[in-house]
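[step 3/7] inverse_fold.run input=structure_tokens len=351
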């Protein structure tokens, strides 16, 4: 096979490099900068150019090991041609196209089809074998229109502001927070950010992404307008002294898991907004069909049900093992409260 799973991850033997390796390797091709795809300690990283800023932010002390190439630009190593194509997941997220001796694989990384002003839109890439995430790979997952959810969030914020309560909106600091921010109405009140969110938001601004103004809410920062503020923060700060200083703030969590009955209760928040940076069930099927792939390898999620459905439709399908299982609804392990860089023993997640 052109790509196969080893104890370090998905390996391309002819080029001797790994796509989203699970452990430090000599050469890593990275789909995007979330911690379950970008592992610390590799000798060299190749990423899509728009994601170079957030990748280097996450790598910290070894940031200079990352190199960016434009979407669509071919890179050939030992006769294997790699190219990046937009995945629509977060800034700089990419599908990796791998071609060798006429055989073409596409590794999706994480992706979504919904429009998002904070990153390049997903594009279909024709291939023989498609490695697809299926984080939400069940028919129950069907996302509402993004503009509908954006209106709901602004309405919730406005009602809280009119009642004199701050609005605490939890979303992963890289990708989700910036997507939420892009839809906020700054006329309602000030937008405050946790440090992890503010750091990544700065990288988005550096990349030319237009976002409403924000204020970094440091531990000693105080502002009389807080009662009308919306506070963007990673889920991991819920219940911490940083979050408690906003008093009786209304709290909401933005995630695809909020579509499931009981998920909001388990999170302990007042509201749940269905916002995901992954494909839902209809989008998953649309994407698979658009690739024209005869062989589909689901990974990261509900692989069993997806494999069964694909086989019933006549596809050659089997689950691709992975060490990580993507976005979780019961923990916030990608964006820790006090750091936005990876380390050798950092936890990981996919928002």
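[step 3/7] decode complete -> sequence:
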């Amino acid at each position: 096979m052109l790509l196969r799973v080893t104890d370090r991850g998905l390996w391309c033997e002819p080029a001797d490099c790994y796509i989203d390796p699970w452990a430090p390797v000599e050469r890593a091709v990275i789909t995007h900068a979330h911690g379950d795809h970008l592992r610390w300690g590799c000798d060299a990283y190749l990423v899509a150019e728009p994601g170079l800023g957030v990748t280097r932010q996450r790598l910290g002390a070894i940031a200079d090991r990352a190199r960016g190439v434009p979407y669509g630009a071919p890179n050939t190593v030992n006769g294997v041609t790699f190219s990046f194509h937009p995945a629509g997941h977060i800034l700089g997220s990419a599908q990796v196209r791998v071609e060798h001796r006429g055989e073409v694989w596409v590794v999706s990384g994480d992706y979504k089809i919904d429009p998002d002003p904070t990153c390049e839109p997903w594009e279909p890439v024709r291939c023989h074998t498609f490695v697809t995430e299926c984080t939400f790979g069940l028919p129950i997952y069907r996302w509402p229109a993004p503009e509908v959810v954006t209106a709901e969030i602004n309405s919730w914020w406005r009602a809280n502001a009119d009642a004199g309560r701050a609005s605490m909106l939890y979303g992963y600091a890289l990708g989700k927070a910036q997507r939420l921010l892009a839809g906020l109405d700054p006329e309602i009140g000030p937008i405050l950010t946790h440090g992890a969110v503010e750091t990544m938001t700065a990288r988005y601004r550096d990349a030319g992404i237009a976002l409403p103004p924000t204020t970094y809410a440091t531990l000693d920062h105080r502002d009389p307008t807080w009662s009308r503020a919306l506070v963007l923060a990673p889920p991991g700060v819920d219940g911490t002294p940083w979050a408690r200083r906003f008093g009786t703030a209304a709290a909401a969590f933005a995630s695809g898991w909020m579509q499931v009955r009981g998920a909001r209760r388990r999170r302990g928040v007042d509201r749940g907004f269905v916002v995901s940076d992954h494909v839902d069930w209809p989008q998953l099927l649309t994407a698979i069909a658009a690739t024209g792939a005869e062989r589909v390898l689901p990974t990261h999620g509900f692989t069993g049900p997806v494999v069964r459905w694909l086989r019933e439709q006549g596809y050659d399908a089997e689950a691709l093992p992975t060490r990580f299982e993507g976005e979780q609804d019961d923990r916030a392990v990608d964006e820790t409260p006090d750091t936005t860089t990876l380390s050798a023993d950092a936890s990981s997640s996919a928002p």
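[step 4/7] annotate
Helices lie at 52-59, 146-162, 176-182, 195-206, 241-244, 263-267, 281-291, 303-312.
The domain at 146-273 is CATH 3.40.50.10890 (Rossmann fold).
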